[in-house]
């Protein structure tokens, strides 16, 4: 009788556990994660979202919620958070890639709701934002070269060349995630060049496989015009150099030789670069839209 009672109780306990959904952070094959794109200049696929120039993603991995970049128009970021049902209080960290306006100007909305939130970024971003918000001083952490957030999440800071970021270059932080299928990389604008970002990330982690690289690549033609009705933005992007067909061909070859499996170019990746990625990677090319959630490792 006692044995039967123990067995019956155990079965009830197991059934009780089964009523709860499994989280996105674990699977039989190891860690899984996701990136939800809450702000940017790609077409929205969720009603109520507003477009604006930029690239902001909520990255969920290794039991952490990380907001990558904080948008250029605070009101639109707040609107999109509400539409997506995301609250700043659930964030564990913010990472700001670099000092361009479309990455930094919505931080106030986040910090007001979550004043103890750590912010990881470059020295230039820290200097700019702390000048007008000195009360955030204890929140800011400058990423020198490589910073380990968790054993599976790294923040890496690289400097671009002059042709990719003005006369002195631009420091930019990207996120490197370690997965069972290889590295997953998120870039803001990719000023240091995505092939060099991939190369450096492989060297730092000693991992040859790159499962996915997602984000901006700063591949656009000189004098590209941008107009976005939702945000009212209308401007011409400064781009000093012209990327030839030969450059694109060499870049695609380099990425494949370095083991890049999937690509999701977005934000400042404009034509003809977008088509080059699509034609080169075929089914391994992912079209990013505003409001979509990308799970990784990517399911075949």
Tell me the domain tally: 1
CATH domain class: Alpha Beta
- The whole-angstrom Rg is 21 Å
Q: How do the strands of the widest beta sheet line up side by side? A: 6-5-4-3-2-1-15
Given as residue ranges, the uncertain stretches (5+ residues, pLDDT < 50) are 1-29
State the end-to-end CA separation.
50 Å
Helices, by number, come to 8
Summed over residues and divided by their number, the pLDDT gives a mean of: 89
In CATH, the topology is named: Metallo-beta-lactamase, Chain A
Helix percentage: 25-40%
Main beta-sheet annotation = 7 strands, mixed
How many strand segments? 15
The coarse overall form would be globular
- CATH architecture tag: 4-Layer Sandwich
Give a quick summary of the entry.
With 300 residues, the chain is an alpha/beta fold. It has helices spanning 2-18, 74-84, 101-104, 107-113, 123-132, 194-205, 245-257, 273-281, and strands at residues 33-40, 55-61, 64-68, 93-95, 119-121, 140-142, 146-150, 153-159, 171-179, 182-187, 210-216, 224-228, 233-237, 260-266, 293-296. The model is unreliable at 1-29 (pLDDT under 50).
Q: Could you walk me through the main structural features you see in this protein, from its secondary elements to its overall organization?
A:
This protein has 300 residues and is α/β, with parallel strands linked by helices. It has a single domain, classed as Metallo-beta-lactamase, Chain A. The protein is built from eight helices and 15 strands. A seven-stranded mixed β-sheet has the order 6-5-4-3-2-1-15. Strand 7 (146-150) and strand 8 form a beta hairpin.
